[in-house]
Amino acid sequence: MVELCDRAIQDEDAGAFLYHQLHAGLTAISEGKDPRIVARLFEMKIASVAGYAPMLDACAGCGREEGPFYFSAAGGGALCTRCRHRDPRAMELEEGVWKLLRVFSAMDMRRLGNVTVKESTAKQLATVMRRWFDHHLALNLKSRHFLDQWERGDDFFKPVP
Ligand SMILES: [Zn+2]
Is the pTM of this model over 0.85? Predict the structure, then answer.
């Protein structure tokens, strides 16, 4: 999955890539796609470009590929039952959240379709990405504010008529 993303980034430089992701994200929101999904996907793209994509398909501690997994920001992503103890804050996630995280890490914003999520899934996703960012990317307040605004669908982001 990381490879897919790398391949997408390969052709463009990171700045151009993120610009296109951002543009596609704004278009997606204006088309009525769930801003909570768009914001999380964009966060994942930022993390990937910055070289901080979480490990999701295997345990970040020992490489084991069998779940169940727990999500650990400090541990680098998925932790298996044997490695879970390394991070007391490791979270149990809904299966739907794992699926979306995996989809996000592989997907280009320009290919985002309509995704419908349960409230609980959207909340867990937000918590996961927030913790990931807090731990790995010292996102400045301005950017954080920007993403929060985006998520709320503030007028600022509505297309100018
Ligand atoms: Zn492990």
Answer: no
